[in-house]
Amino acid sequence: MLDAKIPAGPLDKKWEDYKGHVKLVNPANKRKLEIIIVGTGLAGASAAASLGELGYKVKVFCFQDSPRRAHSIAAQGGINAAKNYQNDGDSVFRLFYDTIKGGDYRAREGNVYRLADVSRNIIDQCVAQGVPFAREYGGLLSNRSFGGTQVQRTFYAAGQTGQQLLIGAYQALERQVALGNVKQYTRHEMLEVVKIDGKARGIIARDLVTGKLERHFGHAVLLCSGGYGNVFYLSTNAMGSNTTAIWKAHRQGALFGNPCFTQIHPTCIPVTGDHQSKLTLMSESLRNDGRIWVPKKQNEDRRPGEIPEEERDYYLERRYPAFGNLVPRDVASRAAKERCDAGYGVGTSKQAVYLDYADAIKRYGQIEANKRNLSNADENTIITLGKEVVKEKYGNLFDMYEKITGENPYEVPMRIYPAVHYTMGGLWVDYELMTTVPGLYALGECNFSDHGANRLGASALMQGLADGYFVIPYTIGNYLADEIRVKAIPTNHPAFEEAEKSVSERIERLMNIKGKQSVESMHKRLGKIMWDKCGMARNAQGLQEAIQEIQQLKKEFWSDIRIPGKINEFNPELDKAGRVADFIELGELMCKDALHRNESCGGHFREEHQTEEGEALRHDDEYMYVAAWQMINDHEWQLHKEPLNYDVVKPSQRSYK
Questions:
Q1: Mean of all residue pLDDT scores within the chain
Q2: CATH number, position 327
Q3: What residues contact residue 58 under an 8 Å CB cut-off, 6+ apart?
Q4: What are phi and psi of 608, to 5 degrees?
Q5: How far is residue 187 from each of residues 100, 184, 222, 575, measured CA to CA in Å?
Q6: Same domain, yes or no, for 378 and 515?
Q7: Is 506 tagged catalytic?
Q8: Cα distance between residue 217 and residue 441, in whole Å
């Protein structure tokens, strides 16, 4: 059942050979084929632009009022590519190796090598679109370091790389809209996949302004709807980010891969109280120059500037000398939690560590003074010059931190703590990005394929654009070449009528509960269960308790939820209710997946399975597979396993020392 369709042959030739032998659709036939794309982030916008350019008839849907509001716009630090502009030893193979190792040997070799290979093309594509990447003095594109690597391969546009890349993809998308190749549906939410004869043939979407349900046919359906981190309520995701699109596909037979593999980002602004509904990410690129530390004394109350150097514990540099502050996200997050749990945390909550730029400011200031031939510059001049350099590289991030916290990070260290960020799990897809439902594809963060148990920083943007610009234009043709004789199916087909009826009945059922509890309160309760028992650390007892608590929460939700307003009108509370209902079901599956995987790997840390030094302890002999779950009934799933074979990289205990 789980045929990954990895091409035969040497690893570095698989994608090239695939492209040379894949089926093609001629230009005249492309104009007869309709493709639906759900989501307009980097994966969705790039796929829609690319497929529209090829001549397919494309419909693209997003629940925001503009594709430019997709959450990809929030990405800050950069995008990886194996260009080796720094001449520091980078290569396609090294990017492939770092990604496999960073994912703790729980990703497919074939998919990851292809990602590393096409990464080089992404930069050229984006530069051609006018993306304003940072450049060195001589005009060459600049690179910086990110966690889990020892080379500089991350391209960036200050601290707003996602925004600039999305604008590039958005421009390409809107050009196809203007040409008539793509039809755009904003403020529309996909609420069901329509299957005919076992194949995905369309969707049911709801117009979020009028509340009207609509039927849309497609020869293929592409889901590009992002991750599901908001299952934890508090996360770095946009408030609207949800799991509904892929969860509907899962209920229609698409297997869900590795749902418990969620990433905790180490560099976020700490929680300040119960009033918060979102957390703010501070780019991992800040670890490129900032140093992370805590006081050596427990329960320290002095201000950071009052703590002398010899009383500071730069714990990442101490524990991981080879990588220092640039260890991967899962390692850095657990290390911060360990220090805070041991009583060395800082700030009023004591649930934070310092990210300090004092050394970087002095270092950059001295370099700048040398460039200006200021041989006798005093310390104040050096610091002033250094702040100017840091402002150019990270200024918008520093400004954002100051607006949120009221503290000036040029003068005092930032306080950071881990928070839910990215999800490595998602719909199971094969090498062609097709799910287990024929004709239904998943691209970008909503599939499971490329990051294993932990995503390296700056690889999300890389995967989204790789899937949309360079993978799906080839692989979808292999499927659609056999669909050219299929005429557009009228949306009065019984399958469409049945799908719309089921969506309508579910909405009416939600509205008719008329209970006492708000959707927000239910979501918050789910998030607390997930964070406490399926968060940074997990154990069997906690996960078993979480499953019971989530099942009880589901009963409560469907008997006591209160949704104001009406169905056939603009009703954000109704939209949110549907999404939270899906999150509740997903939360149960995540806990089941985490409970079944009796090992630690990447972002999945089982307290029962750790080394003497507190690192993740894998059990490759038992768990070297993708856990792909099939929904059988409410609260019931069947596990399917896709074995992971490593022919090139030999798995070993991860070490960043």
A1: 97
A2: 3.90.700.10
A3: 34, 35, 36, 37, 48, 51, 52, 176, 181, 182, 183
A4: -75, -10
A5: 38, 10, 18, 11
A6: no
A7: no
A8: 15
Residue 277 forms part of a structural domain = yes
Same domain as 382, residue 273: yes
Q: Strand order in 182-185's β-sheet?
A: 182-185, 57-61, 34-38, 220-223, 440-442
From residue 28, alpha-carbon distances to 175, 261, 377, 484 in Å are 21, 43, 69, 10
Residues 399 and 543 in one domain: no
Question: Closest by alpha carbon to 367, among 347, 349, 392?
Answer: 392
Interacting residues of 406 by C-beta distance below 8 A, sequence separation 6+: none
Out of 419, 440, 467, a domain closes at 419
CA 238 – CA 153 distance, rounded (Å): 27
For residue 216, list its beta bridge partners.
203
Catalytic option among 329, 538, 579, 654: 329
Q: Which of 371, 399, 419 is the last residue of a domain?
A: 419
In this structure, is residue 17 part of a structural domain? no
For 444-509, the DSSP string reads GGGB-SSSTTSPPTT-HHHHHHIIIIIIHHHHHHHHHTT-TT-PPPPTTSHHHHHHHHHHHHHHHH
What confidence tens digit (pLDDT) does each residue in 210-219 have?
Answer: 999 999 999 9
Q: Look at residues 108, 23, 17 and name the one whose alpha carbon lies nearest to residue 431.
A: 108
On whether residue 172 sits in a domain, the answer given is no
Question: Within a domain: residue 85?
Answer: no
pTM above 0.70, yes or no: yes
The owner of tokens 């049911």 is 204
Residue 629: pLDDT over 80: yes
Range of the domain at 589: 506-624
- Say if residues 459 and 451 touch (Cβ distance below 8 Å): yes
Report, as an integer, the average pLDDT of 505-518: 98
Q: Compute the distance between CA of residue 376 and CA of residue 446 in angstroms, rounded to an integer.
A: 55
As given in the structure block, the two tokens for residue 245 are 């699109």
pLDDT average, residue stretch 526-554: 98
* DSSP per position, 132-170: ---B-TTSPBP-B--TT-SS--EE-STT-HHHHHHHHHH
What total number of domains does the chain contain?
A: 2
Query: What's 560's domain CATH number?
Result: 1.20.58.100
